[in-house]
Amino acid sequence: MKKLLRRIKILLQRILTRFASNSQQPSPLIDSRPRSLETYIPSVSPRWESGLVLVCSQCTNEQSGSTASEDLENWLKSRLKFEGLWGDFRVVSTSCLGVCPRIGVTVVLVSNGSYGNSPCLIVNPQSDRELLYSYIKQNKD
User: What is the mean pLDDT of residues 125-130?
Assistant: First the structure.
């Protein structure tokens, strides 16, 4: 088994070496020169330039087995679509954000103007809906 693995490793090294010498641009696996991230990973401009609303899907599931976070997420989506703001904002369900409140759902609003200072809100999914929506709408560019 060790001999087989050694042979495979040697074969892969040969393939990578030949690939690098045959191509005009060296392989990123062999070329050790630093390059920018955009060289390897393309970037796009999202449609939701005003903000991204992250709703933790684990908060209420952990507390009572309810779907309050899902209901809040769906309500926000409907409201944004109804008022014509769905293209500017996007509401996304996310896994645990690490805040884990005893009561409520963790919501993070990421906007272009936040510069890494995105507010992390603990929201009552029923009584704070309108207040949360007003806060989101306030952050429109």
Answer: 90
pLDDT tens per residue, range 18-44: 666 655 554 455 555 555 655 677 777
Query: Three-class SS of residue 123?
Result: strand
Q: Which residues contact 5 (CB under 8 A, 6 or more apart)?
A: none
Phi, psi of 17 (to 5 degrees): -65, -45
φ and ψ at 89, to 5 degrees? Answer: -120, 155
DSSP string, 54-122: EEESSHHHHHHS--HHHHHHHHHHHHHHHTT-TTTEEEEEES--S---SSSEEEEEE-GGGTT---EEE
Q: What are phi and psi of 105, to 5 degrees?
A: -120, 135
pLDDT at 91: 92
